[in-house]
Amino acid sequence: MPTTSSFPKTRMRRLRRLPVLRRMVRETTLAVSDFIYPIFVTHGRGVRAPVDPMPGINRLSLDYLLDEVEEVAGLGIPAVLLFGIPARKDAEGAEAYDAGGIVQEAIRVIKQAAPDLMVVTDVCLCEYTDHGHCGVLSGGHVDNDRTLELLARMAERQVEAGADVVGPSAMMDGQVGAIREALDGRGFVDTPIMSYSAKYASGFYGPFRDAAGSAPQLGDRSGYQMDPANAAEALREVQADIEEGADVVMVKPALAYLDVVRSVRDAFDHPVAAYNVSGEYAMVKAAAENEWIDGRRVTLEVLTAIKRAGADLIISYHAKEVAGWLREGA
Ligand code: PBG
Fold first, then answer.
1. I want to staple 126 with a disulfide (CB 3.0 to 4.6 A). Which of 9, 214, 241, 242 is the partner?
2. What pLDDT, in 10s, does the model give residues 25-54?
3. How far is the centre of ligand 1, averaged over its atoms, from the C-alpha of 122 (Å)?
4. 122 has which bridge partners?
5. Could you confirm whether domain 27-327 is CATH 3.20.20.70?
6. Residue 103 CB–ligand 1 contact under 6 Å
7. Residue 216: pLDDT above 90?
8. Domain residues of the chain, as ranges?
């Protein structure tokens, strides 16, 4: 336990008076190297389609993707996370595991334009299925085991195209093991898996589903994503993923789940990622645009809190603006 002898001998304010000293005793600092920037890619040319609830975020065709990744790399952001909007959605999400699928094409473009920018992929079928669920349906429910094979195929296509890290996010049991086995079988033994281990069935994904057109057409995802009321269960999810071979584990969303980030950080030695999701971004942007809050200040506060809770990596739509602010010495 910390020891503090009492007032007036102890004055907590002493260390807060000088800006320079405040900086020196600061326990948590953000660095641009903490961030992964999500990007939505879409078919066509000259497409730069704004995502309404997410000011500053666009769906980009591959020609615009070039400029985007040059900007991201130039800001010193080490990694991007790709999401694809397919040309066609179908029951089995075929474009997800097609060698010519939009994400696979985007990976090739990025690796040409900015070879050192790390490319992380999302391994999940929801953007690709016409019903909007994260796996294939059998008798009206998401078929876990049949989905595993498709997720493994999807990860293989992504890594073949040049992805550096794969991020399974479908919340199918056994997905990490199935993907590890498939990648190893193809000789991709060195490709890390960043698993969305504790992914909650959350209302905070609303704007993302707008962006990707991936809202489930019937029912919701509560049959496979976690119940927001549960914390102990998150440790079991993380444990299972680690046993299956996850290299980085993730908690998602971030802000409403900082207790979970902290307990995962304390219970395991693996790097922990936290996903500052679309709804968290949208809330800050909406309030800032109304001048109800100071957007820059709140953004930095939120992201510092995510890191303080124990996240090593932060996936955030704020990454570009934060990189700029950090450069200015924020
Ligand atoms: C699944 C996936 C989702 C998000 C990331 N990966 C959507 C979902 O589970 O509904 C949401 C991210 C965000 O809200 O920013 N493909």
1. 214
2. 999 999 999 999 999 999 999 999 999 999
3. 9
4. 167
5. yes
6. no
7. no
8. 27-327
